[in-house]
Specification:
The structure holds 2 protein chains of 2 kinds. Chain A is built from 21 helices and 12 strands. Chain A is α/β, with parallel strands linked by helices. By secondary structure, chain B is α/β, with parallel strands linked by helices. In chain B, 34% of the residues lie in helices and 19% in strands. Classes of the chains: A alpha/beta, B alpha/beta. Chains A and B meet through α2, α4, β1, α8 and α10 of A and α1, α7, α8, β9 and β10 of B. Bound molecules: iron/sulfur cluster.
C-alpha cells in the first residue's frame, strides 16, 4: 500500500490552516463547486431526488457484486481482454509489474486514478526501473513537485500559479511565465511526447457496466483518452465496487458524476472501453487488462453498517462542501482519499484506530450527505466509527481509543445523578476558577487534564449564582 | 493466448464476495432479474419519439445543439449540403496554423459522408495533403498490418486537423458519439490540434436516454453495441488545474468544429 500518514492529522491540519495559499484556494473551490453542484442537481429534469434513485441502483449492484463482476469479466474476455482479480494492493501491483515486464515496458503514462494511489503503483513501477508519468495536469504538477494529491478531482489545488511557474522553470526548463494558458501549453508539449513514446497506459475506472461489458473513464483534459489509445498496452485499475448492471442505470450515474465532480452537465470526454484493438482497426492497444481490486473492500461489504460506503463513486462533491476539509485541506487526511469520503473510507481500509482522528475531526454537520451525488449517509457512518472507537469492536479489531475518556463520562453520569455532590462540586469549581487566567471576563486556560478544551477557545466562567440557586431565591421572594 | 477461462484468482475472489454478502460461497446466484429481456415502456416511447421526428423537430434539436455548444466552446454550424462543408473545411485549413511544426496535413476518416466531401481533391488546391485512414486488410499478414498501422499513426500525429464523422450527436450536452470501427480510428479525433466533425442532421438525438434506448434495443444498432471503444466528445479538451482558470487544449484538440449537413 502507499504511504499512509493519517497519524499526523492534527499536525498537518495546523499546517494547512497556516498555509495562506491553500486557504485562498479552498475558499475559491468551495464557493464555486459547492454552490454550482447544488444548482446543477436542482436543474436535473428529475431534480435532486435523482440521487435517491442512484443510491438504489448502486445498492442493488453492490448486493449482486459477485454476479455482476463475473458477467463483466466474461464479456471483456470474450472481446479479447484480460481480467485479473486482485485480493490485495500487493497482488494488483505485482500483476501490473508482470504485464509491464512481459511487454518490455520502459515508459508508463498514467490517467488519474485514486485507486492507483491507494495501491501505491507509482513507487513500485519506478523501483522496477520503469518511468511513470502522471498525465492529468494537476497530477503532473504534483508529481514534478514530489507531493501527493490534496483533492480527488483537483489534485494541485494547494499550489498557486507562482509555485507552478517556478516548478516548470526548474523541471521543464521553460522561460518563466505565470500565465495559466502558457503553463498549460508547456505541460501539453512535454506530455504529448510522453504519450507518443509510452509503451503502456494505465487508467482508473469511473464505472463499469455489466450488461455491455465495458468500463468507462471520464475526463475533461483528454489525457485518459490519450493514455488508453496511443500505447501498446492499457491496464485499467478498478475498485471492485465500481459497477452497475445496466446501461440505463449507468446513464443516471454518469449524469450525477459530472454534476457532483465539477458542476458540469457532461465531462468533455467519456470513453466506454470493452477490449483491445480489433482486427482491421488501426489504433488502440494490442492488449487490454482490467484489474479488479479488493484491498479491504470485502470487509466493508460484509458489515451492513458500512456497506453503503461502497456506493461511493469518488466524485468529490462532499469535499467541496465540507467545513473541515475547507479549512484543513486534503493532505491532513494522510491517504489517497480526503474530506468526508476519506474520513469514512480511510479508517475502514487502513485501520480504524490508526485513522481515528479523521472520523473524529469531522463536524457531523450533514453538508456532505446533501451534496453527495449518491446520497450516502456519511454522518451516520462517522458516528458508527466513533462508536467503535468509544467502546472497541472485535470484528474490526478496534481498541477503545481512550479509556480515560470512557471513565470520565462514566464519572460524569454518576455525578449528575447525585444532586448534592454535584452542587458541592459546582461550588468548589466556582471558587477554584478564580485561580485560572482570565481575560475580558472569559477563562483563558483550563488546568490539566482538560487543557485541550481551551486550546483554541475561551470559556465562560461559571456564574456566581447557579440556576437552581436563583430559582429557589426568586421563588421565595 | 487469451485467458478465456475463469482464473483461480477470480474463483477465490468471487467466493469471498459471496461470503461477505452472506451467501453460500459456491452457489452461483441468479442474475436475470438484474437485466431486461425486452425494452421497457420508457424505452419504447423513446424509440417511438426518435422514429417520428419530423423536420421541425429536427430543427428544434439542431437549435438546442447549437445552444449547448456555446458554453463549452464547440462551434456548431448548420450547412445546407456537403459542398458547403468542404468549403468550410477548406477555409479552416487555409486560416489555421499548425501547432507542432510548419507543414500542414490533414487526416480524414474513410466514411460514407466524409468520402462525399472530396477532401483530397479540394485540399490539393491548397497543396495540403489529406491522409485517408482506410481499414487495414485483415488477412494481409502481421508484418503488413504492423507497417500499415504505424504509417497511419505517423500520419495522424503529423496532421494538424482531423476530420471525422460521428454515429450520433446528443443535442442537450453537445456530445459527439463515436463507435470505433476499421477505417475510423479514434485518434483522428484526439491527436490533431483541431477536430472537425461532419454529421447529417438526422444523426442528432436529444440525450443519452435516447442514445441508450437505440443501442440497447434497436435492431440496427444493437448487434454492434458499443463497439470495443465508444467515445463521447463534448467540445474541446480543457483543464482548470492551475488556479481553477479554464484553459482549452490540455491534451486533446484545442478546437472542435461541428458541421451539420441539413440536406
Ligand atoms: S461520498 Fe458521495 S460525494 Fe463523496 S466522493 Fe463519494 S459519492 Fe462523491
Amino acid at each position: 500500500m502507499s504511504d499512509i500518514s493519517t497519524e499526523k492529522y492534527v499536525e498537518e491540519a495546523k499546517r494547512g490552516i497556516a498555509n495562506t495559499v491553500l486557504q485562498k484556494a479552498l475558499v475559491g473551490l468551495q464557493d464555486r463547486f459547492g454552490r454550482g453542484t447544488a444548482e446543477a442537481y436542482r436543474r436535473l429534469p428529475e431534480g435532486p431526488d435523482l440521487r435517491l434513485k442512484a443510491h438504489e441502483i448502486r445498492e442493488k449492484a453492490i448486493a449482486h457484486l459477485d454476479v455482476l463482476l463475473e458477467i463483466l469479466a466474461a464479456k471483456i474476455r470474450a472481446s479479447g481482454g484480460y481480467v485479473y482479480f486482485a485480493e490485495t494492493a500487493q497482488a494488483a501491483v505485482d500483476y501490473c509489474l508482470a504485464v509491464a515486464r512481459r511487454n518490455n515496458v520502459r515508459l508508463v503514462v498514467k490517467g488519474k486514478s485514486m485507486v492507483s494511489e491507494e495501491i501505491g503503483l507509482n513507487p513500485a513501477l519506478e523501483a522496477a526501473g520503469i518511468e511513470v508519468v502522471e498525465t492529468d495536469l494537476g497530477e503532473y504538477i504534483i508529481q514534478l513537485a514530489g507531493e501527493t494529491p490534496s483533492h480527488i478531482i483537483a489534485p494541485a489545488i494547494h499550489k498557486n500559479r507562482q509555485d507552478i511557474a517556478d516548478l516548470f522553470v526548474q523541471k521543464l526548463g521553460i522561460r518563466r511565465t505565470t500565465d495559466p494558458p502558457a503553463l498549460t501549453q508547456a505541460a501539453r508539449k512535454a506530455l504529448r511526447e510522453k504519450f507518443l513514446a509510452a509503451d503502456m497506459g494505465t487508467s482508473g475506472v469511473n464505472m463499469a457496466c455489466a450488461e455491455t461489458g465495458h468500463i468507462t473513464t471520464v475526463s475533461n483534459e483528454g489525457n485518459i483518452r490519450m493514455a488508453t489509445t496511443m500505447p501498446r498496452v492499457h491496464v485499467a485499475l478498478m475498485g471492485m465496487e465500481r459497477i452497475v448492471a445496466r446501461l440505463d442505470e449507468y446513464e443516471i450515474i454518469l449524469r450525477l458524476l459530472c454534476r457532483g465532480a465539477a458542476a458540469q452537465t457532461m465531462g468533455t470526454y467519456a470513453s466506454y472501453i470493452g477490449g483491445p484493438r480489433r482486427p482491421g482497426e488501426s489504433d488502440g492497444p494490442d492488449e487490454f487488462h482490467l484489474v479488479v481490486i479488493d484491498n479491504g473492500r470485502r470487509r466493508i461489504l460484509a458489515d451492513p453498517q458500512f456497506r453503503e460506503m461502497l456506493c461511493c463513486i469518488r466524485c468529490a462533491a462532499c469535499l467541496n462542501v465540507c467545513p473541515v476539509y475547507g479549512k484543513i485541506g486534503g493532505h491532513s487526511y494522510g491517504f489517497a482519499y480526503s474530506g468526508p469520503v476519506g474520513a469514512v473510507v480511510t479508517p475502514l481500509l487502513t485501520g480504524i484506530n490508526r485513522a481515528k482522528d479523521l472520523c473524529c475531526g469531522e463536524t457531523l454537520c450533514g453538508a456532505c450527505k446533501d451534496a453527495c451525488s449518491m446520497n450516502i449517509d456519511l454522518p451516520r457512518m462517522l458516528l458508527a466509527l466513533r462508536e467503535k472507537l468509544a467502546y472497541g469492536d472485535a470484528d474490526w479489531q478496534v481498541e477503545p481509543a481512550s479509556r480515560a475518556e470512557g471513565l470520565a463520562y462514566r464519572g460524569w453520569s454518576w455525578l449528575i445523578r447525585n444532586r448534592r455532590i454535584y452542587e458541592l462540586g459546582l461550588k468548589l469549581a466556582a471558587a477554584g476558577q478564580q485561580l485560572l487566567p482570565q481575560k475580558k471576563g472569559m477563562l483563558r486556560r483550563l488546568p490539566p487534564p482538560v487543557q485541550g478544551w481551551t486550546q483554541s477557545r475561551d470559556l465562560h466562567p461559571l456564574a456566581e449564582e447557579t440556576f437552581m440557586e436563583r430559582w429557589r431565591r426568586t421563588r421565595k421572594g | 493466448m487469451r485467458e478465456k477461462m475463469k482464473t483461480p484468482d477470480q474463483t477465490q475472489f468471487i467466493r469471498r464476495i459471496r461470503t461477505a454478502l452472506g451467501h453460500a460461497p459456491d452457489v452461483t446466484r441468479e442474475a436475470r432479474h438484474l437485466f431486461a429481456e425486452s425494452p421497457s415502456d420508457e424505452d419504447l416511447q423513446l424509440q417511438e419519439r426518435i422514429h417520428r421526428r419530423a423536420a421541425e423537430d429536427r430543427q428544434a434539436l439542431l437549435e438546442r445543439l447549437i445552444e449547448a455548444g456555446k458554453p463549452i466552446n464547440l462551434n456548431v454550424t448548420a450547412l445546407p449540403d456537403v459542398a458547403y462543408a468542404t468549403a468550410a473545411i477548406l477555409r479552416l485549413a487555409a486560416e489555421k496554423k499548425p501547432e507542432w511544426g510548419e507543414a500542414k496535413s490533414i487526416a480524414a476518416w474513410r466514411h460514407p459522408l466524409i468520402d462525399r466531401l472530396n477532401l483530397v481533391e479540394a485540399l490539393d488546391r491548397l497543396q495540403i495533403p489529406v491522409h485517408l485512414t482506410g481499414p487495414i486488410p485483415v488477412d494481409a499478414g502481421r508484418a503488413f498490418d504492423q507497417a500499415e498501422r504505424e504509417r497511419q499513426r505517423a500520419e495522424i500525429i503529423a496532421s494538424f486537423i482531423g476530420v471525422t464523422s460521428a454515429d450520433f450527436c446528443l443535442a442537450d450536452t453537445a456530445t459527439l458519439v463515436m463507435r470505433t470501427r476499421p477505417g475510423q480510428p479514434r485518434s483522428a479525433a484526439l491527436v490533431p490540434s483541431i477536430h472537425i466533425a461532419v454529421i447529417h442532421w438526422d444523426q442528432i438525438l436529444a440525450d443519452m436516454k435516447e442514445l441508450f434506448a437505440l443501442l440497447r434495443w434497436d435492431e440496427r444498432y444493437r448487434p454492434e453495441g458499443l463497439s470495443s471503444y465508444m467515445s463521447f466528445i463534448s467540445g474541446p479538451s480543457k483543464t482548470a488545474d492551475i488556479e481553477a482558470t479554464m484553459v482549452h487544449g490540455a491534451h486533446g484538440p484545442r478546437e472542435v468544429h461541428l458541421f451539420v449537413v441539413t440536406e
